[in-house]
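Notes continue from the previous slide.

Worked example: a multi-chain complex. Inputs as given:
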Amino acid sequence: MTYKAKFRVWRGDDESGDLQNYEVDVNEGEVVLDIVHRLQATQAPDLAVRWNCKAGKCGSCSAEVNGKPRLMCMTRMNTFTEDEVITITPMRTFPVIRDLVTDVSYNYTKARMVPAFAPPADLEPGDYRMAQVDVERSQEFRKCIECFMCNNVCHAVRDHEENKTTFSGPRFLMRIAELDMHPLDTVDRRKVAVDDHGLGYCNITKCCTEVCPEHIHITDNALIPLKERVADKRYDPIFSIASLFSRSKDTRTPAPETPKG
Amino acid sequence: MATTGIHSPGRAKIDADTLRTDRWWLQPLGVFLALTAFVVYSAWRVFSGKYYYSAPYISLFYSPCLSTTCVEGTEPGGPISWWMLSPSLLIAWIPLTFRFSCYYYRKAYFRSFWLSPPACAVAEPHSAYSGERKLPLILNNLHRYALYLALILNVVLTLDAVLAFKTPGGKWGYLGLGTLILTANAVALWLYTLSCHSCRNITAGRITHFSKHPLRYKAWTFVSKINEHHMLYAWISLCTVVLADFYVYLLASGRISDLVFFSA
C-alpha cells in the first residue's frame, strides 16, 4: 500500500546547509534508498547521494537515518511508522562534500598505513597451506564491506577531530588484528597497533559492533583480542619473562616503519 | 555552537548533538542506577565489618576471612593480627579490581558514568579524549592479573558453597535456602570469570596456529561460547553476589532464620 511519508533530508555543502522537508510516496517493500531515488526523480534532481549495489554489499550508501548510522539500502521503510518524520543526514564524522555525500579519504589514508600481509619469503603463492581452524578467525573480518560506519560512529574520532591523526578507528584496527591472527603472516603488528594506529584510544564501548551491517563482532573478536595480544607484549612482565623460556618462540619480525599518509 | 567534534569545520552543519529519536538514554541511565546501587550497598557491607557469618554460611565479601578480628567459625580466620579495619577490606579489592577492569564493565561505566559516549552516535560532553592510553586507565591492560586473583577467590567461594552443605553443628547433610543461594552464586561467578576476554586470550587467543594446539583450541572454543554471554553473566553474578551477601546479613543479624529443606 502506498502512503506519503515525511522526510527531513540534509542539503548543503562544507560551508552551509540545513535539513529540508519533503513528502514522498512510499510503496510496500521499499528501503530508504528507494525513497531517496524517488526524491531525486520527482522533487530534488540535484540531491547528491553515493550508492552502487543496492544490496548491502558495496558499502557506498552509508548515512545516518534518524541519527543512527545505517546503510540506506538495507534500512527498510516498514521499520518506521507511517506518521514518523524520517531524518536523513550524511555521516557526521567525515567532511561533507555535498548533501549526503561525504569525503571518506581519512579511511584510505589509514588503510595505506597498515603493513601489508607478509607471508614467509620462501613460500611460493601456490604453496599456501592453512588449516581451516587457523584461518576462520581472520575470515570473519574479511566480510567487511568498508562502509566505514564503524569509524563514523566511533566517538574517539567522531567527537574529537584532533584524534584523526593518531587513531585509525575500528575498521583498520580490525584489519591489523586480522593480519596479526593470520597463520602465514610473519610480521608482529602489536607495536604499530598501539603507536601508529592508536589502539589505546579504544574504550570498548562497542558502537562499532552495534552498527556493523555485516554483523562482525568487531569489539569482541578483533579489538579486545588485539588489546590482549598487546598486553602480552607490552604490559605483562610475567608473560614476557615466561615467553623467553617457551618452547614455541615468536619468530615474527616487528612491522616496518609505518608510511605516513 | 561548539566547533569541535561533530561540529568541526567541514562536517555537515547540524546543530543537534544527536538526531536519534529512540530512548537512547534509557540504557545508560538504568546501568548508572544499578551500578550505583551496587556500589553503595557493597560499600556499606564491606565497611560495616559485622553480620557476615551465620553457620554454615559466610558472606562472600568476607571470605576468606583473614584477620584475627574475624568472628569465630569463619575459615581460615586469624592469620593477620595487625589489621584493625573491617576484614572485608583485605579481600573485597580483588573482585572490585576484576570488575572495574573487565571489558564489559568498561563499556558500562564509560557509557553510563563518564558519558564517553552516553550512547552510539550521541555526542559526548568532553572536550578532550585520550582513551586508555594514560594513568590510571592504562592499568586496565592488566586485567589478566585481576583474573588470576579472581580465579583463586572463586575456588574459596566454591569451597564455601560446599561447606554450606554441612549443618551448623558441622555434620554433612544439610540443605537450606542459603545453601542453594551460595551454590548459585558460585556457579554464576565461575561463568562470569571463565567467560572473561583475558581468559579467552590465555586459553588460545594469543596463538595463531590453533591446529598445532588442539587442547588449547578446545578450551578457547568453550570460553568463546560463554564469552558471547559475558555481559549477561556479569549482571547475573552481580545480582547473586548481592543476594548471597544480603541473605547472610539477614541471618547473622537475627532478622530471619534459614529456610531448611533437609538436615541430617
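Summary box: Residues 110 and 132 of chain A are 29 Å apart (CA to CA). The longest helix of chain A spans residues 218-235.
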